[in-house]
């Protein structure tokens, strides 16, 4: 199997004032927290958003592993709905000392290019900043961070920077060159 170089960029905000808003998209877009941990729904979002951009690390997770992860205090999934249909999501994971990672963020391919991504990222980042208000006993958020890579969508880095995220680390590593799995065979045009 061949290998390809993959660049990973890590970005952060260190104050809620760093967050830059995005214009609301046209239409009927709502962003709602999925408050009931649902491995089925979370796996659907993961596979549907990441299927064409090589998200593979969670495809082998068992139902029990999904459930255990989703039930961790402070883990939150915020879903964008366009006219009632899931369009994308932001997954937040609190870490030690007031740090919150945006672990996953993205849109289902059919909803890309409709100005939903900037709005979803801005709202998801705001929810990272106020996460402790929903989880008594958590340290207030002092830093929000995420990473993106050269396999992600072509507008990902621009979106993060337009929302006020600043680059703090860049790494290049060789990874196996595998085909994008898609949420199911034939889901995306070649």
Overview of this structure, please?
The protein has 190 residues and is an alpha+beta fold. Helices cover 24% and strands 32% of the residues. It is built from five helices and seven strands; from the N terminus they run ββααβββααβαβ. It has helices at residues 39-50, 63-70, 116-129, 131-134, 156-162, and strands at 3-13, 29-33, 76-82, 85-94, 99-107, 143-149, 166-176. The chain has a seven-stranded mixed beta sheet, with helices on both faces. Strand 3 and strand 4 (85-94) form a beta hairpin. Helix 1 packs across helix 2 (63-70).
Discrete helix count: 5
C-alpha termini separation: 20 Å
Task: Output the structural class.
Answer: alpha+beta
Instruction: Give me the Rg, rounded.
Output: 16 Å
Biggest sheet statistics:
7 strands, mixed
Counting DSSP E segments of at least 2 residues, the number of strands comes to 7
Neighbour order of strands in the largest sheet:
2-3-4-5-6-1-7
Into which percentage range does the β-strand content fall? 25-35%
Please estimate the helix content: 10-25%
Domain N-acetyltransferase: 29-190
GO molecular function, one term: acyltransferase activity
EC number: 2.3.-.-
Enzyme class: transferase
């Amino acid at each position: 199997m061949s290998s390809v170089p993959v660049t990973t960029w890590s970005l952060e905000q260190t104050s809620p004032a760093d967050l830059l808003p995005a214009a609301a998209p046209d239409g009927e877009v709502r962003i709602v927290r999925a408050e009931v941990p649902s491995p089925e729904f979370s796996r659907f979002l993961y596979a549907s958003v990441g299927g064409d951009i090589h998200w593979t690390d969670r495809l082998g997770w068992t139902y029990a592993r999904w459930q255990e992860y989703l039930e961790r205090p402070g883990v939150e999934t915020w879903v964008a709905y366009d006219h009632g249909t899931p369009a994308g999501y932001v997954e937040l994971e609190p870490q030690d000392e007031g740090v919150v990672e945006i672990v996953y963020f993205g849109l289902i391919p059919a909803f890309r290019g409709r100005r939903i991504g900037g709005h979803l990222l801005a709202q998801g980042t705001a929810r990272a900043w106020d996460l402790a208000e929903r989880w008594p006993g958590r340290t207030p958020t002092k830093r929000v961070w995420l990473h993106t890579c050269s396999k992600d969508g072509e507008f990902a880095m621009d979106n993060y920077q337009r929302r006020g995220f600043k680059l703090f680390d860049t790494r290049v590593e060789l990874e196996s060159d595998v085909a994008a799995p898609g949420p199911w065979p034939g889901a995306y045009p070649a």
